[in-house]
Amino acid sequence: MLAVKDLEIRVGARLLMEGVEFRVTAGDKIGLVGRNGAGKTTLTKTLAGETQPTDGRIDRTGEIGYLPQDPRSGDPDMLARTRILDARGLGSIVVGMREASEQMGSADPAVAEKAMKRFGTLTDRFTALGGYAAEAEAASIASNLNLPDRILDQPLKTLSGGQRRRIELARILFSDADTMILDEPTNHLDADSVVWLREFLKGYRGGVIVISHDVELVGEVVNRVFYLDANRSAIDIYNMGWKHYLRQRAADEERRKKERANAEKKASVLQAQAAKFGAKASKAAAAHQMVARAEKLLAGLEEVRAVDRVAKLRFPTPAPCGRTR
User: Fold this and answer.
1) Which of 37, 48, 214, 277 has minimal CB crowding within 10 Å?
2) Are 193 and 217 in contact (CB under 8 A)?
3) 103-115 pLDDT per residue, tens
């Protein structure tokens, strides 16, 4: 579905990631995590083909459904229902069938005959694409995302940002894409819709890459976790569910701390010995070798993840309000 090799992404002079390699196949439910600003959204845009990587290669097989944080695609004058159905090429057919049906009642025999032929052709195409069953499926998805008919029958340009986002999510879920890339899909969803979406994604047969702050969604859905480490400009891949990932991630961080502490201790000893030997001309070569060994020890270490800073806000105690009667 998706194959990434030696991927490098930069934003201006800032390196977000380099040397990234992974594959996404059918059944993979990947949670993409990392602190804010690490580059998660930029990565999803790149995987979807919205932007180009600085270096490396992305091979895409099959259809990709991409839900950005702020979707603006689609003809503004198109009905929301048509936008969803067009994910399988059905929306425009339905519009054409409706127009042909109206023209069949024309007083002009030539217009009516032409409309009948067009209606028959479109009906055959509609049926071949599983039209009626697909319409019911699309209606079910829309209903579960709290998109009633009054919204579906409006042009996209009349809808709010939250409604447009739910329309795009419904379109992607209906598209039956081989790989779905979803950036915060639970935004603008009510509690019932979030529960429904979790169950939908659990049963989805294609590949999924999801960014989400919904802990229950990633906890129940994902079977792989990609951690984007902004300090190391790398992605750590964990082929496990969310709970196991949390334990393994903590263990990895502790291991890195110990390895770095041991290496820094050894390097310090070597540097101290080199300083003593450097004072003697006969041991200058040995001192140089010790310095080189110390530098190699430190250069080979993985960076320990810096603890993310969290703002601490303190609000003054409000004055007591007056009595009310």
Assistant:
1) 37
2) no
3) 888 888 888 888 8
CB within 8 Å of 160: residues ≥ 6 apart: none
Q: Tell whether 233 and 259 lie within a shared domain.
A: no
Instruction: Report if residue 150 sits inside a domain.
Output: no
- pLDDT, one tens digit per residue, over 6-42 is 999 999 889 999 999 999 999 999 999 998 888 999 9
Residue 3, CA distances (Å) to 18, 47, 111, 208 in order: 15, 10, 52, 13
Q: Within a domain: residue 135?
A: no
Could you give the strand order of the β-sheet that contains 14-24, starting from the edge strand earlier in sequence?
14-24, 2-11, 55-60
Q: CA-to-CA distance for 80 and 70, rounded, in angstroms? A: 16
> What are the tokens at 262?
């041991």
pTM assigned to the model: 0.77
Helices (H) and strands (E) in the chain, counts: 11, 9
Query: How many domains, in total, are found in the chain?
Result: 2
Structural domain boundaries enclosing 20? 1-62+178-239
